[in-house]
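> run fold MtN3 and saliva related transmembrane protein
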Amino acid sequence: MQIMGVIAVIVTLVLVAYGLTSQIYRNYKNKNTRGLSLSFFFLGFMSWCVWSIYGWMRGDFFIGFAQTVGGAMNAVILLQFWLYRKK
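> ok
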């Protein structure tokens, strides 16, 4: 069971390190979030947060840590929606 936790953390952190960071960089470079769904990222953020809370409440480092990192990166994308909104 412990090995599955390690695998889950690795896969989640690869998603965060590659997927979300590349999206953050693309948004930063283009100074817009055109083509992205705000509702998708908002619901994703909520999911990361709830899983993070669940993991920490259970005392499960694997779930808590990976989900907290993902939630933080998703929060950056939500911040970019606000920063790059049309004025």
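The longest helix spans residues 2-30.
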